[in-house]
Every structure is written in C-alpha cells, then in structure tokens.
Amino acid sequence: MLAFNLSTLFLYLYLLVHWIIIFYSWIIFLAAALSFFPGIVNTAFAKIAYWIFRLARPVFSFFQRFIPPIAGIDFSPLVALLVLNLIDRGFYNVIMRLFY
What we know:
With 100 residues, the chain is mostly helical. It has one domain. It contains three helices and no strands. Helix 1 packs across helix 2 (46-64). InterPro entries: CCB3/YggT. This is Cell division protein. Pfam families: CCB3_YggT (PF02325).
C-alpha cells in the first residue's frame, strides 16, 4: 500500500511540474509573439504585455548570454521552449521508470 501511495504522490508531483512547464511555455510563446508588435505598449493590453515580458525575461536573458541574435533575430525563446520540453520529457521518463 505504501508503494502505491508513493507512486501516486510522484505522479501528482509530475503532473504539477508538467502544468507549470506548460503554463510557462505559453508565457514564453506569448512574449515572443508580442515582441513582433512594438506598438502593443500603447494599447489596452499594455499591463498584460508588461507582465508577460516580465515573467519571460529571466529565461530570455539566460539564453541570450549563450546565443546571440542572428541577423537581428533572437532565438532564445525557441531554445527555451526546447529546453523546457526536454525537462518535461526527462522528468516524465524518470518518474515512469522508477514507479511504473
């Protein structure tokens, strides 16, 4: 019975991490999409855009240290999404191999 409870606990832990990664992936995607519209600052969405950029900036700045813009295009959002996806899949594989 203890093993079942422990495996269920880790499954729920994985689901929590998975949904956090999905939410943050959407934040990164929206920040990347909004960066194509510099006039968004003067609209009704200015506060929403501000918080989206503020939440995504730490990840962007981390990857921008290693990946400079190429021809004026910043690829850090794409790399961040790939890394988050790899973390999600890796965590899933570890949980499934250990407990199921």
